[in-house]
Design goal:
Layout lengths: L1 H11 L12 E10 L12 H8 L5 E5 L13 H11 L3 E4 L17 E2 L4 E2 L2 H19 L5 E2 L8 H9 L4 E2 L7 E3 L2 E3 L12 H21 L2 E7 L11 H17 L3 E3 L2 H13 L11 E3 L10 E8 L3 E9 L4 E10 L2 E8 L6 E9 L2 E9 L2
Parallel strand pairs: 1-2, 1-10, 1-11, 2-3, 6-7, 7-9
Antiparallel strand pairs: 4-5, 8-9, 12-13, 13-16, 14-15, 14-17, 17-18
Helix pairs in contact: 1-7, 2-7, 4-5, 6-7
């Protein structure tokens, strides 16, 4: 209690003479590199930090590198299970690149643009990284992110176009708070105070954080606190970061009271983007493809499924029976914009009604077809 009162005193001291009304604060907590490849700081879990923040009313945006889900330390499924649970509790999963390693120079400080060779990735190369990441998250968790955190905060106009193509409307990088193209809004991070946190800088970082948050709350609507795994783990320095964020949020809650609102990155960006344009908040985008009725229909035993893509997309075309069992995957992979035709031969199937589904850009459309023998 003494520490809380002291921190509150430091926070409100400049306002005592005027006794002005309490300001408001919208607060985002962004945690990157889930899970980092560190296997010595245990347990490798996001739950202790999550529980501490949630107990104080906060929510978290977790920056997840999908490739972590198929790396050896995570093959037990624990990470996937924690991500599913945290999303169900209202926290956000943000796409944090694919593997956080540059495919041109093999460095881990960037991924979407090679800063070592000062060389851009092509649109198709970036689309593969993003689509592969989305596919891994979907396969292991069923989660489809709507925000993107570029590794090392490095991205370019091609990255932004590909994100729009894949119906990801929000990004968080060190660019101005604005639309980076017609469909992509950027919410930049603010400062990080817990990187390699120690007892020696604990109090100073806490005072600095409170002072900066208060100052920036007066200048803009949203403050985005940045954190990183593995420093958030309960095994790092005896859980020092978990204690630190607890003290920070206790002080903010006591000072701002009902005037503090905790938001995920996507919710904050959605709010700000609507205020920037004066329109309704950005919603999940509509499909950028059309799926036609198969022809001929009814058919025996072969038919053709036609569809068109407005933009290059990762496509999955599947056939199910009416009970929902998967019969066949007809197409899976990256396809160019334009019209496409896929043949389906049902010579080995009994007569009946079947459903074909096309998934692209996170949106699925389905139609029925009838096989008569």
């Amino acid at each position: 209690m003494y520490r809380l009162v002291l921190l509150l005193f430091l926070l409100v001291l400049p306002e005592i003479p005027g006794l002005v009304a309490q300001p408001s604060l919208k607060f985002v907590i962004r945690v990157d590199d889930i899970l980092s490849r560190n296997t010595t700081i245990l347990p490798r879990s996001i739950t202790p930090l999550q529980d501490s923040i949630a107990a104080r009313g906060g929510v978290i945006t977790w920056g997840v590198m999908p490739h972590r889900l198929i790396e050896a330390p995570n093959l037990d499924g624990k990470l996937a299970a924690e991500l599913v649970t945290t999303a169900a509790l209202g926290h956000e999963i943000s796409l944090h690149g694919y593997i956080h390693i540059c495919q041109k120079c093999n460095q881990s400080s960037h991924e979407m643009y090679c800063t070592f060779y000062n060389q851009a990735f092509t649109e198709q190369e970036q689309a593969k990284l993003i689509s592969d990441g989305l596919d891994l998250l979907d396969e292991h968790t069923g989660i489809r992110p709507v925000s993107f955190i570029p590794p090392g905060h490095v991205s370019d106009a091609t990255t932004w176009k590909v994100l729009s193509d894949y119906d990801i409307p929000f990004i968080s990088t060190t660019k101005p708070q604005e639309f980076l193209n017609d469909d992509l809004f950027n919410l930049p991070p603010d400062s990080e105070f817990t990187w390699a946190l120690t007892q020696a800088n604990y109090d100073k970082n806490l005072r600095d954080a409170l002072a900066e948050i208060r100052q920036k709350a007066e200048e803009k609507q949203v403050y985005t606190l940045l954190m990183h795994d593995p420093f958030i783990r309960s095994g790092y320095e005896g859980g020092i970061t978990i204690r630190w964020i607890g003290e920070l949020l206790d002080s903010l809650n006591a000072y701002y009271g009902d005037n503090i609102e905790y938001l995920t990155l996507a919710d904050a960006a959605r709010l700000l983007s609507s205020e920037t344009t004066g329109t309704a908040p950005l919603q999940r985008p509509v499909a950028h493809f059309s799926l036609d009725q198969n022809y001929p229909n009814p058919f025996n035993p072969q038919t053709e499924i036609r569809f068109s893509l407005d933009r290059p997309s990762r496509v999955t075309l599947t056939v199910f029976d009416v009970g929902g069992s998967l019969i066949r995957t007809l197409q899976e992979g990256y396809m160019d914009a334009g019209s496409h035709r896929i043949s389906f031969n049902a010579g080995d199937l009994p007569s009946g009604v079947y459903i074909y589904s096309l998934r692209a850009g996170g949106v699925t459309q389905s139609r029925k077809m009838t096989l008569i023998k």
